[in-house]
Amino acid sequence: MEELKIQPIRNGTVVDHIPQGQALNVLRVLGVDSATRDVVSVAMNVPSDEMGRKDIVKVEDRRIDSKEADLIALIAPDATVNVVDDYDVTEKHDVSMPDEIRGVLACPNPSCITNTREPVETVFDVRDDEIRCEYCGTVLTDEIAEHLA
Ligand code: CTP
Ligand code: ZN
Questions:
Q1: 80 C-beta closer than 6 A to ligand 1
Q2: What is the residue-wise DSSP string for the chain?
Q3: Using CA positions, which residue lies closest to atom 24 of ligand 1?
Q4: What is the pLDDT of residues 23-57, one digit of tens each?
Q5: Which ligand is nearest to the CA of 43?
Q6: Which ligand is nearest to the CA of 80?
Q7: pTM above 0.90, yes or no
């Protein structure tokens, strides 16, 4: 019922079941900023039977790759990624928590080898809700969108 308020899209990706307040972080992970050329719609605080309130992000004519899906899982563990093709949902994927994140995040420790001797690709291990730099052990404490490389 609540979906009636939000325009369906013709082609692209709908990230649904985002926790309330996380839509903008999902957009950051998808690289959507003021310079984007993508057609993007964002719904926040939408009533949801399962979640009370939820956010939804729709990006037209875009697919989401596995690295992006891994980052979405960290922000929105219950997110559903829907592929829309000619107005139909043709694929629906749950996101799953990755074991590690390679390359897309920067370590906040300035003396970490990933910041001092390039090119060393960053690797963060995901364990027990902690995201830890494999090289220096630094744990990311604030939102991961703050650490996008
Ligand atoms: N959607 C869209 N444009 C379309 C088709 C679907 O924006 N042309 C959106 C819907 O609004 C919804 C999501 O894609 O947010 C998934 O659509 P659908 O599977 O039809 O909805 P539900 O069955 O409610 O999904 P779920 O079972 O995952 O909650
Ligand atoms: Zn580090």
A1: yes
A2: -GGGGS---SSEEEEEEEETT-HHHHHHHTT-STT--S-EEEEEEEEETTTEEEEEEEEET----HHHHHHHHHH-TT-EEEEEETTEEEEEEE----SEEESSB--S-TTSHHHHSSS---EEEEETTEEEETTT-PBP-S-GGGGB-
A3: 3
A4: 999 999 999 999 999 999 999 999 999 999 999 99
A5: 1
A6: 1
A7: yes
